[in-house]
Amino acid sequence: MAVITEEQAFTAMKEVIDPEIGVNIVDLGLVYGVEVADSNDVEVTMTLTSMGCPLGPVIIRDIQNAVAGVDESIGDVNVRIVWSPPWSVEMMSEDAKDELGIW
Asked: Could you tell me the domains of the chain?
């Protein structure tokens, strides 16, 4: 039985703030999905706001730390970066848009 649910992983990742934008990566719409294996390994599929994002490695590390911190028996946390579909402002939650003043 898995020790973490997809919902718990998403909740943990709300603590990961995009350093350039100042909003969490979940509300920004950067996280596309989470899969939890029977072995308790977790795979996060996500994108970045741009292909040249210099802080991608920082965000990946923060995701790994946040998800692994939910339970000590979580295995590997792999973050897979994809570029399709490309990120756009429309993917942001209403809260994120409000926080950034996007109407």
From this structure: 6-97 (3.30.300.130)
